[in-house]
Amino acid sequence: MASGSNKAQTQxxxxxxxxxxxxxxxYDGTTMRDIAEKAGVSxxxxxxxxxDKASVFRETFTRMLAPFRDSLDRSWEDVPLEKRLEAxxxxxxxxxxxHGKEIFAVITWALESPQLRGVVLDTLLDLNQRFxxxxxxxxxxxxxxxxxPRLSALALMLTFDATLILRVYDPRQQTHDDRVAAVRALVDxxxxxxxxxxxxxxxx
Length: 204
Hints:
By secondary structure, the chain is mainly alpha-helical.
């Protein structure tokens, strides 16, 4: 019987192989036999770890998003408040740059598959909502309630989301740099507003 470490290693090999195949060939263009050959294991071994191809996909997608999910769960108290928004946006942007090809490939063909559409969209929307919650918490610490921090955080998240999505459809570096600059300008505006509020409280 395989040891726990060997079992985990075999499962990881299967998921790495599946990720590459799903991205390059799509869900419908990938078979369990393809995954087994790519992973260097038997087809029976793949079925021993996963009941069907949909199960392989769900675990592959979960594994792909795990680093970003983990970053949302971390504590940000060690980052100075005035630098926290930028740090949070950087984490998301770095993840998108590192895994953007895989994620957007999955999204593109998953949206065409009724079987997978719900899993993909529900997972991504949940992560996006959690990311928005992280930003909202930081903005709420920076701005007083009368400055409507929830709306400021929403505007920031929507601008940032648009920047990531548009990079796929408009990869020109200059236009991407301009969109990134717009996001940074929003962050600077929020931080300046927070500083003015802090200064006014100090002089009251």
